[in-house]
Amino acid sequence: METVTFSLLLFAAVSLAAYAVWSQVATARDPVAARLREIRASHAVGARATFGERPDPFLEALARLGGFLPAREGRDVLRSGLVRAGYRRAEAVAVFLGCKVACAVLVPIVWIGYASATGRPLGSAAVWTGICAAVGFYLPSGFISMRQKQRQTEILFALPDALDLLVVCVEAGLGIAAAIQRVADEIELASPALSGELALVNQEMIAGVARFDALRGLARRTGVDELYGLVAMLIQTDRLGTSVADALRAHAQSMRTRRRQRAELLARQAGAKLAFPLVLLILPALLVVILGPAAIQITKALISGE
C-alpha cells in the first residue's frame, strides 16, 4: 500500500511538470502568443537597456513558468504589492507567480524524497505532501510581505534625515527636482530604498510628470503613511503660498517626535513581551537549578529514613 501511494504521488509530480512543459511548447507554436511574447520581450529589453541591465535566464524561466497560471483581475493589486517590496521590473508579476508554482512543486518533491529516505509511513506522508504543497505555494507571498515591512521600516527611519537634507538644499537655492536628486545621492548609503525612490521621482519630473503626481506616486509605491502626509503638506503649501522650507522643517520635526513616541511605546511593551519567556522558559530552568539539589537531598533523606 505504501509503495502504491508513493508511486501515485511521484506520478502526479512528474505529470504536473510534463504538463507545464507541454503548455509552454504549445504556446510557443501559437502565432498570436508568439507575437505577443515578442512585443513583451521588446518592451522588456528596451526597459532593461535603459537602466543598463541584462536579462537573467533564471528569471525568464520563472516568468515562463508563471504564465502557466491563468490571468486574474488581481494582477494590478499584486503588482502594487511587488512594487512596495522593491520589485518594479515589468516581468515581476510573472516571476512571482512562477516562484509560487516552482515552490508548490519542489517542496512536496523534497518532502517525498525525505519521507522515502527515512522510511516514514506514506499514509501520513501523503497528508504532509499536500500541506507542503500549500506551504510552498504561499511561501513567496510571505517573503514579499516580510520584504515590504523591512523596506517600509527602512524608509520610515531614514525619512526625517532626508527631509532635513531637503530643507538645506531648498534654502540653498535649489529647485525641488534638483534638491530631491541631491538628497537621493547623499542618502544612498543610509537608505538605498529611499534613495532609489527619490531618484525615480526626479526622473519622472524630468520626463514631464507633474510634481505632485510624482510625489503621490512615491507615496503609493512605498505605502508609508508619513509620505502621504508629506505629499498633502506640500500640496497645501503650494496652494497657500507659504515657505516650503519651513513646512518641511516642521514636518521633519513632527516625524521625529512620532518616531520617539513609537520607541517609547515599544519600550513600555517590552515588559509584557518578556513575561512569556520569563515564565515559561527561564523560570522553570531557574527553579530546577535552585530547588533541584534540595529535592535530591530530601529524597535521599526519606529513602534512608525508611
Describe this structure in words.
By secondary structure, the protein is mainly alpha-helical. It folds into two domains: 2-149, no CATH class; 152-260. The chain contains eleven helices and no strands. Helix 1 runs antiparallel to helix 5 (92-118) and helix 10 (225-240) runs antiparallel to helix 11 (244-305). The longest helix has 62 residues, at 244-305. Residues 42-55 have low confidence and may be disordered.
Give a topology summary.
Layout: H1 2-29, H2 31-51, H3 57-66, H4 75-84, H5 92-118, H6 122-171, H7 176-186, H8 192-206, H9 211-222, H10 225-240, H11 244-305
Helix pairs in contact: 1-5, 3-5, 5-6, 6-7, 6-11, 7-8, 8-9, 9-10, 10-11
Q: What's a quick, concise take on this entry?
A:
It is built from eleven helices and no strands.
